[in-house]
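User: Methyltransferase, Solanum lycopersicum:
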Amino acid sequence: MKHKDGKPYPPNKNSKKIQVTLIVVVLCGFSFYLGGIFCSEKDTYATKEVNREDETSIGNSAGSLQTRGNSFTECSADYQDYTPCTDPRRWKKYGLHRLTFMERHCPPNFERKECLVPPPDGYKVPIRWPKSKNECWYRNVPYDWINKQKSNQHWLVKEGEKFIFPGGGTMFPNGVGKYVDLMEDLIPEMKDGTVRTAIDTGCGVASWGGDLLDRGILTVSLAPRDNHEAQVQFALERGIPAVLGIISTQRLPFPSNSFDMAHCSRCLIPWTEFGGVYLLEVHRILRPGGFWVLSGPPVNYENRWRGWNTTIEEQRSDYEKLQDLLTSMCFKLYNKKDDIAVWQKLTDNSCYKKLDNSDSYPPKCDDGTEPDSAWYTPLRPCVVVPPATRKVKLNALAKWPERLHVAPERVSDIRGGSEGAFKHDDSKWKVRAKHYKKLLPAIGSEKVRNVMDMNTLYGGFAAALVEDPLWVMNVVSSYAANTLPVVFDRGLIGTFHDWCEAFSTYPRTYDLLHVDNLFTAESHRCEMKYVMLEMDRILRPNGYAIIRESSYFIDVVAPMAKGMRWSCHEEETEYSGQNEKILICQKKLWYSKETSL
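Assistant: Predicted structure for Methyltransferase:
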């Protein structure tokens, strides 16, 4: 307002305060109204997916939990082999270049399934180890493609209700045993405990990794998800370590300088294309002194070229390109005979000095990307130079099994890590594992073969169970301290993962899942129900879960487990009276109400 002479009145402070107050009150009321609408709609939607039950109690020897149960619905029968982050239903959304559509592409939150993945029609409890190494139930992995297309190579044979695994492969149709015998002649370090960990890229049905288990070598078998072959599913059904994965545009989820050996048996990876990125990734994850084994084209091209639909000149050129690329990234030809060639990653870092030349190819990686960064990290056509220190070299590690309990030098790279901390962790898990076996006698029996430690530190749980007839996949959170190199240095296997996403495996592939305060560490980043549903997806029917958490999270998790048709009981830790509790659960075997498509 203004005076009659045109000058404005001075502002009234009390009037201004009243106006602001009115605005705030109106806005709060409006937001409360909108919130009421949203919440009512949300509750309506939730009742479609989750049935609220009355207050129930879960009886156990240590008392009972008074909680509210959540009942999850069943997924439709055509989701029996659902792999959320490598789902063929979504492949068309991604490019064909370098097979990027086969990499991890997790669905957005609004597409996430909140249902229980059913088993196939006729599913049976898996055949127990060691018998499972040679046979599995057909209805558990009902795929005939390999049987029909690879029948002359003896990958597997269907006999009645079972698949039989004769131990054949593309490069060893007469049996993997003789193939590995020749490999051991070429690499004596495979026989004296020097070589302990290996990775098989393009693993088939994991016969190579299965044979190495009997020789004291622990192998991660790697293959992509596909529509017909189900390579990784066959491997895990047999009780052999395997994960879904492909070398494409992203690094594999393993730290640098970790594996003692890498293997490719006619895996059809174009090693010299795209700047050699695929072979450069093998170089990154292979420790100095480690071995890269190749069988198939172009090895032994002089005698094999006629069967490869090519010319001898083309194969000679391919072999020379491969040899030149390996030499440029500091590999040397270690041994060669018949269809097998072996290269060794040099331990002398003076070789890498040539990469300082601006004209070198491939070039040396700059310091922009950590060598161990391996969760959705793009592949780069450059050489990751290993540290000059002895701590990652194969010949600097104790031989197996001594290396299992020796504190690796890389433990000092971890914040708070030391030899003392490692020894304390090692001793702690011996006590805990002994207690677990009292609570769950199935550990150490034929009932438990495939085990996952969902959030390990140094692999202590796996180390404590090393004498039992099982293997452990050690998982380190991509958001946690990088302790996975220590796991590999002590002769164990593992992978990086983010538990806010689905794991790279098929449903029904693990007999035992172990959780040590995972929910405490990760609940601020994602909803626990999705982690629990993922645990249900990858756990076999009649399989077990050991959930070690604070009392608070045990009370939250228990009703979710009940809603997934698990039977659970709460137990005390090895030192009763602590705030921590242990929930022991078993997943029930149930069948879909639908018929598979």
